[in-house]
Amino acid sequence: MESITKITLHRRRQSRAVRCFQVAAFGATWLAVWTAAGLETKGAEQGDATGRQTAQGEAAEGGRVLFADDFADKLAEGWRWIREDRQAWRLADGALQIRTQPGNMWGGANNAKNLLAREIPESAAKTLALDVTVSNRPTERWEQLGITWYYDDAHMVKLVKELVDGKVSIVMGREEADRTRTIVILPLESASVQLRLQITGNQVTGLYRPDGKGAWKEAGKCDSPGKGKANVCLQTYNGSADAEHWARFSRFRIREVAPR
Hints:
By secondary structure, the chain is an alpha+beta fold. It has two domains: about 1-60; about 65-255, Jelly Rolls (Sandwich).
């Protein structure tokens, strides 16, 4: 019995030796196949986790989604450019990136480039929310990016991340017939922030979440500055003529929500 056990163990050692020899002999090919399989499995697990996180994030943000654009391979149907500069925008790394150029929308100049607008879907809901996540690293005075409730260049409500007096801030402002009123300026520490304009009847409420985490914080409220059909519009302006600063927009949503 003892001799049989020794023979079996010896064969097992041989088998392991043969396998080691095969790995050494076939080298990169064997390793590549094993690595690819491992990466595919890991990638699938990561994809499932990302999907779960996205679903949890959507649930936390609440409401039925009427329109979504993650700015992946191309812009969704329905967007329109205002004063487009095709060389100064791109889709990359899961975001719409627009170069922040000189120009202004606050007041009568109305010459900023690459405003991206779309109509609001029809809905019977009392309250709609317009969400987008933005990030940048501004250096110029009043350099900004954000979202607007937009009728035309002279009538809008903006909610933006803006450099004000050397400090990065959340700014909400109202403009009617090119006459402007700043509603609030709040300090912001994060590079990324989720912005929301919430529309209930004639009232516009601005909300934000630093880094897209935690509960929504209210920035301010105002009445709508126009009549008729408004658009949602993404904007960035007051940039440098020399330095390339790219404003990043991601996770755009229009959704029905409960009134605040």
